[in-house]
Amino acid sequence: MSLFSAMRSGVSGMSAQSSRMAAISDNISNSATVGYKRAAVDFSTLVTSSGSDTTYSAGGVRSNVHYQVLKDGTIQGTQSATDLAIDGRGFFVVTNRATAAQGTPSYALTRAGSFLPDDQGFLRNSAYQYLQGWKLGPDGTLPAVNKSSFDNLTTISIAGLAYGGSKTTQMSFSGNLPAQAANGASFDTTSTFYDGIGNPMDVKLTWTKTANPNEWTLSATAPGGYTVAPASSTVTFDATGPNAGLPSGALPTITLTSPANPTSDTVTIGLSNVTQLNGDYVPQFVGDGAKAGRVSTVDIDKAGTLWAIYDNGARQPLYQIPIADVVNPDGLTVQDGNTYTLGADSGALTLGAGNSGTAGSVAGYSLEQSNVDIAEELVSLIETQRAYSSNATIVRTADEMVDETTRLKR
Amino acid sequence: MSLQLALSAALSGLRATQQQAALVSHNISNATTTGYVRKDLDLTASVSGGRGAGVRVDGIGRRVDELLIRDARFEQSRYTAQAARASVLADYATALGQPQDERSVSTALAKLQQAFSQLRDQSDNDSAQAAVVDKADALVRRLHDTAAAANAAQTDARNRLQASVDQVNGALSRISDLNTAIARQSAQGADTSDLRDQRDLLLDQVSEEIGIRTYTRESGEVVVMTRNGQTLLDRELAPGEKPLQLTGTDLTAGGKVISANPDQDIQSGRIMGYAQVAFQDMPRALRQLDELAAGIVQQFQAAEADPTQPGLFTDAGAAYGTTAGLAGRIAVNDAVRSNTWKVQSGVQATTPLAPGDQTQIDRFLGAFKATRSFSATDMPANATLGDYATSMVSTQQGYRTNAESEMKTRKISADALQNARINRDGVNVDDEMQKLLLIEQSYGASAQVIQVAGRMLDTLLQIGN
Which of residues 47-76 of A touch B (CB under 8 A)? Predict the structure, then answer.
């Protein structure tokens, strides 16, 4: 009988509205949860009998829950370097265990990036999930890793980063040589460079005026054990014409080679902007590299590379934080702690650096707020309340009608 | 939700204006602090996720004109060079006196000549003879005193040079510490502007002592060199390391002797002034005095019967030996003290000449009138003793007046550049007060936004009822 189907339909409507009510209440209660993605309840019709165009049998309504994972929340600035947010698509990879010794880790994806070091220096978010990354080689390059599975990931640890320095590889000299200098006059400049273990070394460049006009001999004095090539070279300057005061030919490049223990390092000294004008000897001799220093803080760049910053001003890349992406983020399975696991509808997983491909860029000192809009939820709340009342009215009216029917015979 | 965005944007505005207010108060309280540079808060619009989200504080701006600072430092150091030189030379010039002064060497020499002229008219007069001995003694005393004053000025300059060198080394080691602190703080993204102020102040101090050139590395560390490229500080100094060293008469910077050719290698700063006095002006003055003393000893020795034996003036009792240091050793021959008749008859004479015999006196007077050759810098090559003495005193006075007039010229340009620097970088209290008004209004506006957003949220919650 259609009347009973109408009553059933009203009940199914009440049930559907109550799921929506539950979703709204979850959304509002998580409106301040970092990385929370709002749950939405959609409805679809249920048709029990079809084909008849003379009677109507109400089928009711079915509710479908889905999470709006792709809808970004507002990114807000914070004061912590390890607060991370992803601007664009993608997820951080996290596990529930820091090390394999604590049990088999289960991997999950999250956008909740409020990471802080735990007592052992592992970066952990407020849901006790550990951030995963690829360890970079000593020269800052990414070793061969599997970019479609979690296999090569390790838990990022920022403890135990004691001392580090960076060796000098490039130096450059520029400046003016005094054109008025007497034959045989020499001018030298010493600068410091750092070897691989952070020892300061002195290299001296000496310019000596030769007997030939506008010609200088450049020689480099390297610290003990180092070899210099070329040990001495001649530089000639134009005295007249459009290039007066500038070098006549190409400037030499000097290479310092360290003793091989077991392999040798090289420092290249490039010359640029050298002039010979009547004036003072004004050298400028600079190089990269830094002495050994303690780690003072860490910094995360847009690509998701975690840099250690030393108190001597040097920076060193330590980890690559991969940004995970799936074909259909809305199809991920929702788990506890704002995490998602791969589901039937999510599609294949890819891992990669941030700010490349489809992956969004990583922003340090910021967190993604929930994507819940309270105004929208409150309006939905009103709608839900009205819809629920309407459904209840259907049930009550159907009940009254059934009552009418039973009263036909007294 | 946009309303939350409005709240957080307004909050960022409140935070930024609070920091601005703190900075303005820091500026005002340091308005008269030496070396303090005005700070500004660098603000940019914050964008996250492609949406505007309030204001972001990028850091504290400290905008200085490095070229102006460089010029101001250089002019200041050229001024202090001349001021230092003038101050040491002034002490010596007081002892030296002017050519016409009673106490000057040239007056003492002229008086001796006068005494001889008077003796010529009354050659056997005991008191006239005694007057000659007296004037000869006075001349020797003047020469001794002037030489002592020159030596004292040289020692004084050397002592002050040492003090300047110590001050430079001390300041450089503090700059080295600040370099380390600045490199560390800027790596961490912290504010380094006050540390830079301190470092600039120390660099100003160093440049007053010795002219410097500087450049800044990418890490924020400053490299300090002498004007002619000798490195004084690169990266950091080892504990106890002294980039400038004074050993004997050699001033070395980074292992190179820079005092040999100060005009090229030092150029400016107090160290330049003191080095010029200690290694150039005073040795020159002493050489000129020694030449005068040598002229006096030799001329009077030549006026005697045997020109190889000691005459009226001796080299510490003996005949002329060497010129170096003679102005301090010259003495009146003791033979004339007991036998004053010897000034009439010749110091080497054994018996007095007849009264009225003027031959020897004429020879003594001839010693004054004869032209002889001198080999001191800045001095006439050929002159009589009197002309040489007068010229020497005025030349040496000239060293001081030159230094003083140059000091005054430099002072004007140094002051002009210093004023330009203070006007550009210093704190203008009027500007700061105006900024404070803006900050107050902007703070009020942000707070108003928060109130309105709060009321809007209230309205939203009332929809349900």
Answer: 72, 74-76
